[in-house]
Structure formats: C-alpha cells, structure tokens
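Database export, one record per block. Field names are fixed; values are copied verbatim from the stored entry.
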Amino acid sequence: MLTFTCAGCGVTLPIAGSAPLPFRCPAAREGDDVDHVVLRTDAIAAPFPDEGDANPFVRYRHRLAAHALAVESGMSDDAFVTLARDLDAAIGVVEGAGFRVTPFAPWPALAVKTGCGRGELWVKDDTLNVGGSHKARHLMGVMLYLLVDEWRRGAAAGGGRRPLAISSCGNAALAAAIIAKATSWPLDVFVPASASDAIVARLAGLSASVHVCQRSPGVHGDPCQAAFRAAVEAGAIPYCCQGSDNGLTIDGGRTLAWEMIAHLRHSPQGSWAPGRIDAMFLQVGGGALASSIIQGFGDALASGAVDRLPRFYTVQTVGAYPLKRAYDTLSERILHRVPLVIDQGFCPAADQERAELMLLHPDIVDDELREARRRRSTFMRPWEKVPRSIAHGILDDETYDWAAVVEGMLKTGGWPLVVNEDRLVDANLFARELTGLNVDHTGSAGLAGLMKAAGIDPRLAVERVAVVFSGSDHAA
C-alpha cells in the first residue's frame, strides 16, 4: 500500500479517499524546528527493469508513487501508460521533445584530465532532458501524481485547479513552466532579481506569471523561497524541486539513478561488477538532485539491482556551502561519541579518515541523524551572506533536503567538497572541450569536486566514478 512518512517526526500520511496530497507533513508547525520531509516508505515490489520503453516515466512506472496511486485507485496499467504518453506528447509540443532516457557513457580523455585515468569516469548527460536539466524529472513525477489525483476524484481537467507555484533562479522554473504549459495549469514563478533576462522572457512566453523578489537588507534566507511559501500558504500547489516543501518531487528524480544502474547492468562490464559505481560526485544547491539519486540507488539496492552503494560526495561553492556546514556540525557530534575518540582522544582532521571512522559506527550515526532532524536550525540555517558564484544554480541559501543527503554521505563514506571559482571554470572548460556537451558551470560542478578530491583520495584514480551534467548553457 502506498505510504508516506515524515522523516522528521514519524507521522504517517493517509493517502486513501479524499486525503490531502502528500506534499508536506500535516504535523508541521511554524517554528517547531523539526525537519519535516515526507518520504515514501512502502516497499516497491516490482522487479528492476534493465531495458524497456525509451520514456523513463513509462519504463520505471511500477516504481513511481503516481503509478502506485493509480493502481490503488482502480486505474489500469494501460490507462496510466496512456496518461503518461499523452502528457509527454503535450510536453513535446511545447518543448520540441518529451522525456527520453539520457546518455550515460565513459569519457576516457576526461578521466585522464581529472586524475582518474587508470579507472573509468562516466558522465550522465541530462543537458538533453526537457528544459535542459534534471529539474523536469522532479516536476514530471509530481504532475503525473496530480493528474492521477484528478482522475480518482473525478475532477474535470482544468476545472477549479489551484495554481502551481515554484521558487527558482532558472532551470527549475523553466521546467515547471514547460510542463504547466503542456497541461494548461496556471503557474506562479518566484525568481531573484539576478535571474537572466533570457530565462524571464522564456518564462513569460510559456504563460507563467513571473514575480521578481528583491532581497531585504539584514534579512537572511532566500526571498524567492519566502514568497513561494507564502503563495502555498494562500492555497497554491508547491510545484517545486525541494523535498522539504513537496516530498513527491524526489520521486521523479530517482529515474536518473535507475537509468544509470540499468545501463551498467545491461552493458558489457569488463572487470567491473554489474551496475557497479564506486564513487559519485553530485553538485548541490537545494539538495533534490543528490537526495533523489541517493534514494534511487537505495531503492535499487533493496530490490537487488546493485549489491552496494557508491560513495556519495557533494559539491558546493565557496559562495555558499550550508550543506558542508551542517555535515561538519553533525560529524563533530558523531565523532565525540566514538569510543576511539573518547578513550584515546584521537579525532581525525582529514575528511577521508573522518568519513571512514564514522562508517564503522552506524548506530551512532542513526541516533545523531534522528536527533538532528528534530533540531534542524542547529545544523541547517540560511547562509548569512548573499551567495555569489559562476555556478549560480547551486547558490541556494539553504540545502532544503540536507538530512537525506548528509545521511547518504555518512552511510557510504563520502563527504562534502567546497570548490573555488577557478576550479569551477576549469572543470567547465574541460567538460565542454573533451565531451562536446553544452553544459553550464552549475551542471559541471560535480566534475570540479572530483578534480579536487582526486588530489586527496588515491582510490579515485583506479575506480569507476560518475558525475551528472545537468544544466545546458542557454547562452551558448
């Protein structure tokens, strides 16, 4: 049975009948400091598909919450497929193409350039996705759920629909506007004053209502996010890429992980185990990309599609790194409960040593994670300065899905990296020149993290490593 549970307080959300949509925990209260993030918690019984339809939302439908809701509400599998194909076709009319499994391939020249030449460096290219980034995957999953919910309630398409709302500086808003246009669903977009004129013009051309949000002196936090939440409070649907505001947004993003795993399970492996990836570097802003991929790999592990998880590393910029700050605070609490630290006073300073030591104490990690989710502001708080970086797409004031991402690092032996502007520029230059892919500085930021880590961790030189390029350069 389709089940959602709040990771922060443990409340289970009812789905049957006329229950509210499982966006946010109903027990959440302003100022309670609990990290209320809704997660799907029922077991997925469907076998993992290595091959299938070119549309990931058809191929992996048996693993999606929208399909589970459809089946439990009496919709046939064929009817769901028709719904997904019709939506995809409508998106194609707006965008020129709908959703397709995107390329995942090794790039030997890039591996050599980044210090991984004796292993393999694989790139998942989601710049070819709807809207030029992975953001549309999140929103497609939410939209399928909304359309199934309309069907089960017998609501007329478009009749009395609440508006959608999203906060974004670019790619997420563009993805939302494309899907909203395809469904004739009204959309309010809250963007910063720094949003590019080209993006704002494109949003207006897609019939989105664009609201430019200015920062107020002395007020911490993203003004776009504040305006977005005010709109949701007034009745709008949170059509966003933050799991903290809409737990369903993680669902569609997991297709990225499943595509990578399926490709590696189906392709010739050489000396590598089927589906194996040793390390993955993920750029982080709000955290939905990393959270989705981590959870997608977790689903695959539970179903037996892989026999272990990669080490997950996250990448932020010197312009804003709230996730690393949260990780460091939590790590300090964990390490001060480790017997080796207590008894002998040994507390490693190196990231790899810290990560490996914490990996040996999963019970302490779980205990401290539970406590951290009940005291969010101790670990995750808005960045105090105005974030600035050439990788503007990961300049979120907060990492909204921080707890799931930190958990993914702690339980696999990865850690967060912070890179400077020169490294971001170099990584993008190498990415574009050696692969020919039209990726922007945000989209190649994971590669910048790998370049930094390769100089620290010698394992990476001989392992199978993966990055995700997500975010096409709209100016190119």
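Remark 1: The domain at 104-132+250-469 is CATH 3.40.50.1100 (Rossmann fold).
Remark 2: The first strand starts at residue 4 and ends at 6.
End of record.
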